[in-house]
Amino acid sequence: MSNTGEMEQKVGEMSVAEGEQELEEDIVDPWTVVSASAKGIDYDKLINRFGSSKIDAELIARIERVTGKPVHHLLRRGIFFSHRDMHFILDQYEQKKPFYLYTGRGPSSEAMHLGHLVPFIFTKWLQDTFDVPLVVQMTDDEKFLWKDLTLDEANRLAHENAKDIIACGFDINKTLIFSDLEYMGQVPEFYRNICQISKLVTFNQVRGIFGFGDSDSIGKIAFPPVQAAPSFSSTFPHIFNKRKDLPCLIPCAIDQDPYFRMTRDVAPRMDCLKPALVHSTFFPALQGHRINKYAFSGGGATLEEHKEKGGNCEIDVSYQYLTFFMEDDTKLEQIRKDYTSGELLTGDLKKELITVLQKLVSEHREKRAQVTDEIVKQYMTPRKLAFDY
Amino acid sequence: MSNTGEMEQKVGEMSVAEGEQELEEDIVDPWTVVSASAKGIDYDKLINRFGSSKIDAELIARIERVTGKPVHHLLRRGIFFSHRDMHFILDQYEQKKPFYLYTGRGPSSEAMHLGHLVPFIFTKWLQDTFDVPLVVQMTDDEKFLWKDLTLDEANRLAHENAKDIIACGFDINKTLIFSDLEYMGQVPEFYRNICQISKLVTFNQVRGIFGFGDSDSIGKIAFPPVQAAPSFSSTFPHIFNKRKDLPCLIPCAIDQDPYFRMTRDVAPRMDCLKPALVHSTFFPALQGHRINKYAFSGGGATLEEHKEKGGNCEIDVSYQYLTFFMEDDTKLEQIRKDYTSGELLTGDLKKELITVLQKLVSEHREKRAQVTDEIVKQYMTPRKLAFDY
Known about the structure:
2 copies of one chain form a homodimer. The first copy, chain A, has helices at residues 16-20, 43-50, 57-67, 73-76, 86-94, 114-130, 140-146, 151-167, 180-183, 188-199, 203-210, 218-222, 224-228, 237-240, 257-266, 286-291, 293-296, 303-309, 317-325, 329-341, 346-369, 373-379, and strands at 27-29, 32-34, 53-54, 80-84, 100-105, 134-138, 175-179, 248-253, 276-280. The first copy, chain A, is of the alpha/beta class. The radius of gyration of chain A is 21 Å and the shape is globular. The two termini of chain A are 28 Å apart. Chain A binds chain B through residues 141, 144-145, 151, 181-182, 184-192, 195-196, 198-204, 206-207, 212-219, 221-222, 224-225, and chain B through 141, 144-145, 151, 181-182, 184-192, 195-196, 198-204, 206-207, 212-219, 221-222, 224-225.
């Protein structure tokens, strides 16, 4: 996976032609997220275009009813906002039938930052709540194909990033983390499923879905089935006792949906189940926040103006960050009220955020420091997990 | 590999547009071999178009000088007629430096017929003469992608065909036979090399080389690097002690050359050696021979005419078969003379051929019957061979 939760300003990667004209609609695919409007991505429109379903109050109520506990704040606050077939997964759960979780990470940087961790924080909640196996794909092959990286470097980053993922607290007895470059040479079912998928998808289709062109490498063209294959339980014979009928739920950022639209399209022709999905919005870019202070702050231009007119939480990045990371609903609501009224100043809001982030970061660093290479190796070994099928 | 030595009449697979107009030149790629002229493929033109080199008297003399023995009749009689970098391989051999052989088979039918065995008969001679390791790729993935076959069926055919290949007499201590579907899940270096190659080849290039179109599956588009990868010794870490600098010589039918033009193009950019090749002509189709008796016989239309004008060995399929399978030069030359003069009748020629073929077939069947599943498994296990690097 390329972009797990972070909205990056990728205008530099757009062609001149795209950059010059005004966009009629948001561009959202695994490699480009560009908004057509200053207000940012229009997620409701995206749901319409992609054909997914909104996570509404009724679905949230059903999750709470079925699991007997309040949903995670990332769900409650609309950060995970869209889904496909989530009701089917809940049906399974109600009937005590098994399913599994699949998510991933494109290992392109040495250390993961908090934005990268958002989908994993939510995935950990899903695993704990539903007590199901989790497979985490490290697409080191993808990063090799798209970036100026060697295979060894991409694979090394996969292991480094695995430490951050493990530090999120996933149960070692219920979690497999795997690097594509390694798993391909360990478990023949991976390549077999890739062959099955690849036979059913044409170049025309991947051009339409992913925007591939004639001068793209055949490595890129061949990649989507690699990300699709873990949606099928037969890709993990050690875990699922060679069963191919176990449903899969994929938590991911909405930009990864194209892969799974393709997967859902081929699944019935392979006699497989379509994977279900829960989609998150993008994490606001920290860089934009720092550089473009006024555009991304919702505070008044002067102290007087702020006290008089109040701040705008809708566009304030510090406030948005708090919705991702501050767990306490009551406190967050108080901050929203006080900032909106002008009582809480921008500096105070930022101080709140810094306190929350510093705590999260230092706790994460501490946990990560305990993750040895030996522990990484255990998580990354194809093996049976603590479930019988 | 799709077509190892057999010329098939694949007009049925051509597009209507191609079928309607007269061909300006022969079509020769891994899936289509169609001649523009009734005389058959013009191999000299093919050498020019492909940019390979003719195997001339001087090269043959050098091989005999260097190896100290007469060349195989398939070389002597121009059935292996074209090469790339064969002089480099002979330089290596003279300097007592190692190289290895790579050939393959697309397992699409239950049993291989004699035409399919021609490249293996020649490869066996190469292995015995140069005393080098041989790797044989069974492209069961390719057959799954191109044909209406399941993965299991394609893989089963790979094992069946391996028996025929083993029956050719390859030294078990010097030969690895591998199925793509199996080897991919056993040896990570295979996929790693595929990634490396795939990154360097664009869709435009494979369209130009292989004629892929927009409605071809991405499985087909992704396949050429799979056939290319065994050209690099790093694909076989067990055999070559992880060395990536060992030269490769590929005996194959000329229709497989597009794969290796692509391979030779990317090799320097991967810091790898370009594979050397020896190319064969196509084995005349037995089917055409049976059905279209007159067109493919070089005999006179009547007994009188034959006795008066003589037969034409150039176009007589029975005679062509003898050039492939009759080892005795003196006897073959006598037959050529007698048939050309009209002394030897078409029926006699066919009788000669049947005798030769029956002997070959019965000997082959006997050897094949001795190849147990256990022996196949031994040949197909990734392992060190009887060479140290």
